[in-house]
Design brief:
Blueprint lengths: L5 E3 L2 E4 L6 H7 L3 H6 L9 H17 L3 E6 L6 E11 L4 E8 L8 H15 L4 E7 L3 H9 L3 E11 L5 E10 L19 E2 L3 E5 L5 H8 L2 H4 L10 H16 L3 E8 L5 E11 L4 E8 L8 H16 L4 E6 L4 H10 L2 E11 L5 E9 L9
Parallel strand pairs: 5-6, 13-14
Antiparallel strand pairs: 1-2, 2-3, 3-4, 4-5, 6-8, 7-8, 9-10, 10-11, 11-12, 12-13, 14-16, 15-16
Helix pairs in contact: 1-3, 6-8, 9-10
Organism: Asanoa ferruginea
InterPro entries: Acyl_CoA_acyltransferase (IPR016181), GNAT_dom (IPR000182), Ribosomal_N-acetyltransferase (IPR051908)
Pfam family, one: Acetyltransf_3
């Protein structure tokens, strides 16, 4: 690529300069930058910043890619950096990477810069651009989708942690012929970040919920309803909570915590699993901590989530399943407006190679009931 200035609304992409070193040093010691760029020296010194300006950028340009400073067009202050790396000339392919300084976040800087650099790279002859990000980095996933990069799944062991172990990354890509418009999401954000009926609140799962989830999902009768019915693994629960936002952004599932609106205490879990986008059908599942049972929280959660789903997504039918012996869950679904539609023999895996029957329930938009 040619090292030229690129103008975009609210940002300017220009070459990095010696006088950027102080801002680079400060930004590269920020916790969020360090978390998702674990290969950075620790601590990141002024010498490291000057070396990046002097050598790192030069090497990127020499391999057919390039590194730009993302700058404020009014003050020229550095807001972050962005570049095209890992260039494969035979495939006319490269990888976009960026970071944004703490003082520039929340202003769509990364999205605008990514769109501008992608357009420039395509004009320079690239046919395909990739964007790889940690599953836990929901902000970066938002940037990828907003910049027109489509999800292509996961790449195992594609990145290295600070301790030398490897981690899986989410893969996004944009082709030269793609429109570049934001990727349409199957599951939008909640209005105001939550749903509530005044008694119960539903909010998205966050990494800090891992301890609560481990306690909740270790409850014996909740374990019995797992598929398969085995106790949870602590590391698996942590990953689930850390990656929940990205799963939501990709339209795969929406995990929510039930919260007692009166006290703010977490009370349970409800999940939406969008397994059939082509048919507009999704499934819900829920569980309530023993300390909060008998307060109709599961019914309230099912109705709250169902009303949001039918009003804001392309889902036209919600299903749920219950163990034939789980009379409590069947009462929850009936109270929410679900109708029993069938009995599925040996549908689910059990213990020691066994199978478990499952009762199928479904609800349509007009079936949901009011909760009091």
């Amino acid at each position: 690529m040619k090292p030229e200035t690129i103008e975009a609304p609210g940002v300017r992409l220009r070459l990095v300069r010696d006088n950027d070193a102080a801002d680079i040093e400060t930004a590269c010691n920020d916790g969020d930058v360090r978390r998702f760029l674990p290969s950075l020296p620790q601590p990141y010194t002024r010498d490291d910043a000057q070396r990046f300006v002097r050598d790192g950028a030069t090497e990127a340009w020499a391999t057919g890619g390039g590194i730009y400073a993302i700058a404020d067009p009014a003050t020229d202050r550095l807001l972050g950096t962005i570049g095209v790396h890992h260039v494969d000339n035979d495939r006319a392919q490269g990888e976009i990477g960026y970071w944004v300084a703490p003082w520039a976040r929340g202003k769509r800087v990364a999205t605008t810069a990514t769109k501008a650099l992608a357009a420039h790279a395509f004009a320079e002859g690239f046919d395909r651009l990739e964007l790889l990000t940690a599953w836990e980095n929901a902000k970066s996933v938002r940037v990828a989708l907003a910049a027109g990069f489509q999800s292509e799944g996961a790449r195992r062991g594609a990145a290295r942690n600070a301790d030398g172990t490897r981690r899986e990354v989410a893969v996004f890509a944009r082709l030269v012929g793609d429109p570049g418009e934001p990727v349409k999401r199957l599951l939008p954000d909640l209005p105001g970040g939550q749903l509530t009926d005044g008694v119960l609140t539903l909010r998205p799962v966050a990494p800090a919920d891992a301890d609560f989830y481990f306690d909740l999902l270790s409850t014996p009768d909740i374990i019995a309803s797992h598929v398969p019915p085995v106790a949870p693994d602590r590391e698996e629960i942590q990953l689930r909570c850390e990656r929940a936002q990205t799963r939501w952004l990709l339209g795969e599932r929406a995990d929510l915590v039930m919260v007692d609106a009166a006290t703010g205490a977490p009370a349970g879990d409800i999940g939406l699993y969008y397994q059939e986008p082509m048919t507009g059908q999704a499934m819900i599942g829920y569980c309530v901590h023993p300390a909060f049972r008998g307060r109709r929280f599961a019914t309230r959660a099912s109705v709250l989530l169902g009303r949001w789903v039918f009003a804001n997504t392309g889902i036209g039918r919600l299903i749920a399943g219950t163990n034939p012996s789980n009379a409590g869950s069947q009462k929850v679904l009936e109270a929410a407006g679900f109708l029993r539609e069938g009995y599925q023999r040996s549908r689910l895996p059990g213990l020691a190679g066994g199978r478990i029957d499952d009762i199928l329930w479904a609800v349509l938009p007009g079936d949901l009931r009011e909760t009091t």
